[in-house]
Amino acid sequence: MFSKFQYNLKVPEESGTETENTSPFATYREFVGDRHKITPVEKQDLLKQLSIRNKPVVWVCLEEEDHDPGRFWLKLVSSVRKFVPNSGEALLDGLVDHHTQPLFSSLKKIIDVVQQNDILLVLENFNYIQATSWWQSTLESISNQKLPFQWIGFDYHLPEIDLEQNLDSEALSPLLIWDVFWFDWLKSKKAFATKEFINKFEQLGLLSFTTEDYSIPIHVWSQLIDRKKITNELKEQTTLQSELLSWLFSNDEWLEGIRILIQSKEFEKAGDILEKNGAGWLEQGFEPLEMLFWLRELPSVLLESRPVLCWLAAQACKEMNLKFLMSFYINHAENSLTSLTRFSRNQDQWLQIEINEDGLKIGAILEKLNLLKN
């Protein structure tokens, strides 16, 4: 099951030792501690330099939603944990939602972990967080305390090329509706007829990652297209996205389907899928921090009002030893269940109330919540 969350935490492989730089721009050392604008091709040069760095590199591909501090720090901790398992526990335990900016005392602990392990942090699409007040205050605190913190931020200036000259305008519509190119689906829409197409994107440096099944373009690639030339009504765009959604679910790409639903503001449907499948995913070894991330992609008012979703969040928190957050979600679940007492005459009736379409009863979910407390 593909996960854009994991892709956003993509870490370049380490191999060998550093060699002489042949890049057309400065060495990565000269980039540290600042923001830069580079071309897609220069990004590949930077990746080559970092791939032979004999010390850890954490590469985070930011999204527009990462301007929310809690979302950003959760992703950063998850990426650091690829090198230092279980780090950042205090920081995570204080993040009650995507909008929370943690105390600097907990931020300092993860910064210390980064420094002690000589980790270089690379933030792609840095423009999404550069001007935020929480990032500026974080850098100010780091500077005031003279903490060694190695980071590189970059975003893109695009090459001057006529991409439309190389593409059939009819093939562009399916490409523009989503940020992952699913080859089989695009072929069914006659948008990916030849291998030369993907090769062209690669030559221009417009792809971040490619497998046999999908490719992920850099997010600014569509700026090379004049959308006014594409005669594609909003209704057609909606239809295409609906067809992609059905295709994803039929191929068990649940997380991508959830992403589309959330982007389309279909939060209830996304919550239904997580409620139905979340427990099974955790039992199969799904990373609990990622489960918490996807649950928090839902609006807090929805997550905290649905007992099963709160139980899933609490279960994920228990697996990570996040005691405060576990209690936080248990309390919300219990409060939601207690609010249903007005629909029953006594406690026995209350415990038999079904809270979802699968027939889950209040008594059963209370047992699950009590097991977490023990």
Summarize the topology.
Elements: H1 4-7, E1 34-38, H2 40-51, E2 57-61, H3 69-80, H4 89-93, H5 104-116, E3 120-124, H6 133-144, E4 151-156, H7 169-176, E5 181-182, H8 183-188, H9 195-203, E6 207-210, E7 214-217, H10 234-250, H11 254-263, H12 267-283, H13 288-296, H14 300-303, H15 307-319, H16 323-338, H17 347-351, H18 362-373
Parallel strand pairs: 1-4, 2-3, 3-4
Antiparallel strand pairs: 5-7, 6-7
Helix pairs in contact: 10-11, 11-12, 12-13, 12-15, 13-15, 15-16, 15-18, 16-18
What does this structure look like?
The protein folds into 3 domains: 4-156, no CATH class; 163-250, Arc Repressor Mutant, subunit A (Orthogonal Bundle); 276-373, no CATH class. It is 49% helix and 8% strand. The chain is built from 18 helices and 7 strands. It has helices at 4-7, 40-51, 69-80, 89-93, 104-116, 133-144, 169-176, 183-188, 195-203, 234-250, 254-263, 267-283, 288-296, 300-303, 307-319, 323-338, 347-351, 362-373, and strands at 34-38, 57-61, 120-124, 151-156, 181-182, 207-210, 214-217. The strands form 2 sheets. A 4-stranded parallel β-sheet has the order 1-4-3-2, sandwiched between helices. The protein has a 3-stranded antiparallel β-sheet with strand order 5-7-6. Helix 15 packs antiparallel against helix 16. The protein is globular, with a radius of gyration of 23 Å. Residues 14-25 have low confidence and may be disordered.
